[in-house]
Amino acid sequence: MKIKKILVSQPEPENEKSPYHELARKNGLKIDFRPFIHVEGVSAKEFRQARIDILDHSALIFTSKTAIDHFFRISEEMRSTIPDSMKYFCVSESVAFYLQKYIVYRKRKIFYGHNNFSGLMDLILKHKDEKFLVPLSDQHKPEIPELLNKNKIDYTIGILYKTVCSDLSDLSEVDYDILVFFSPSGIKSLKQNFPDFKQNTTKIAAFGPTTIKAVKDAGLRLDIAAPNPKAPSMTMALEQYITEFNKNN
Description:
- By secondary structure, this protein is of the alpha/beta class.
- 34% of the residues lie in helices and 22% in strands.
- It has helices at residues 19-27, 44-49, 65-77, 93-98, 117-125, 143-150, 184-193, 209-217, 234-247; strands spanning 5-8, 30-33, 37-41, 59-62, 87-90, 109-112, 132-137, 155-165, 178-181, 203-207, 224-226.
């Protein structure tokens, strides 16, 4: 039996030139997209229980656009007016530019790194006397608090949004040749939505070491791992596997 149907546990790419569309066209595949997880904001009531005062902080660290959205949402709900003196430290230029949605960009003190948190630390260290607030998800990279602690930064982590399992009850069964996952939360959602799921001949593809570990910890068989030396992206890993598999079946 050749591989014909794939379910990718992410939203469908808006770009028509997405490598997934090219993969489907080249290999005669049907690729469906369905997010297995979604983000829900923490309520103002929940945030108050954490006893964090936004205005006690002189600087903000943003690791994503989602963090920015939820920070300004909760600030509005808490009726906290962010002072013009607030400093903004963003993990990348695109995240920094996203601030324009909420503030007058050119009138604020904004600093940004080059797409990784360790690079942003160099800028944070130059402003070590600030008191930082770090808006994050309940599931965040451990390197963030690790690096801040290591460098003795005065900071508070504010959990402003949570990653939760989506309701997949409309998928009566997971009838696909390959399931593609990008986070441990996706694996958790699979098990929660389909407690009787039997892998059998279904192939599982996972991106990144934490997702790969989650597949194995869940007692599932990992068939496709990315990135790998021959395939830096998931679509490349899928193409290589499918080409080889279909040739032999």
